[in-house]
Design a protein that fits this description.
- The complex is a heterodimer of chains A (179) and B (21).
- Chain A has helices spanning 27-33, 43-50, 96-108, 142-156, 169-175, and strands at 7-18, 34-42, 63-69, 85-91, 118-125, 130-136, 164-168.
- Chain A is globular and about 50 Å long.
- Chain A has 179 residues and is an alpha+beta fold.
- Helices cover 38% and strands 0% of the residues of chain B.
- The radius of gyration of chain B is 10 Å and the shape is elongated.
- Chain B starts with 7 loop residues before the first helix and ends in a 6-residue tail after the last helix.
- Classes of the chains: A alpha+beta (179), B mainly alpha (21).
């Protein structure tokens, strides 16, 4: 990073994936479809590539951005994720770009205050709704998952009626379904 | 150790910094 840059607590990698509709997710084709886009370690580096990135709302259906700490693959099976889980927030169309930005700024700025628990965040563009999620290492720790939920509510400024769901990755592996 | 914490407002200001262009 350049001298004078504002270093982030962690180095992050952005990944992109797109699934052909109707093609059921399996770990092998998921791994083939996911592409590394960029890695950054400072606030300046983040903004310099983010400015050129297509906004989530402008992506075609079945696309995902995955922003994870460097060294953590955005897969359930990764060592950092395998006993973890995620908070899932379903959004009506049109909100994903703004809320995704709020979420990742909170993550990069270490606003969640849960030590090293956060693994990454995902925005999923789908046909009828969009979904954002934040992944953490320990699905069984209620104190941590509650704190993540409360910060998520605050930074997204969600309407009270928004339904949030926590799902352990072991359950996603069992039913082979992410949401 | 200490953690590097950034508030949203600060990060938004940094968006327009010449170093981030």
């Amino acid at each position: 990073i350049n001298p004078g840059d504002h270093k982030l607590q962690f180095v992050y990698t952005l990944w992109f994936s797109r699934r052909s509709p109707g093609n059921k997710a399996s770990s092998s084709n998921y791994e083939d479809n996911i592409k590394m886009v960029a890695t950054f370690a400072s606030v300046e580096q983040f903004w310099s590539f983010y400015s050129f990135l297509t906004r989530p709302c402008d992506l075609t259906s079945s696309s995902d951005y995955h922003l994870f700490k460097q060294g953590i693959k955005p897969m359930w099976e990764d060592d950092a994720n395998k006993t973890g889980g995620k908070w899932i927030v379903r959004l009506r169309k049109g909100l994903a770009s703004r809320l995704w930005e709020n979420l990742i700024l909170a993550m990069l700025g270490e606003q969640f205050m849960v030590g090293d628990e956060i693994c990454g965040a995902v925005v999923s563009i789908r046909f009828a709704e969009d979904i954002i999620s934040i992944w953490n290492r320990t699905a069984s720790d209620r104190t941590i998952t509650s704190r993540i939920r409360d910060t998520l509510k605050r930074v997204l400024n969600l309407p009270l009626s928004t339904i949030m769901e926590y799902k352990a990755h072991t359950d996603s592996i069992k039913d082979q379904s992410s949401f | 150790g200490t953690r590097i914490i950034y508030e949203r407002n600060f990060l938004m200001q940094m968006r327009n910094s010449p170093l981030a262009q």
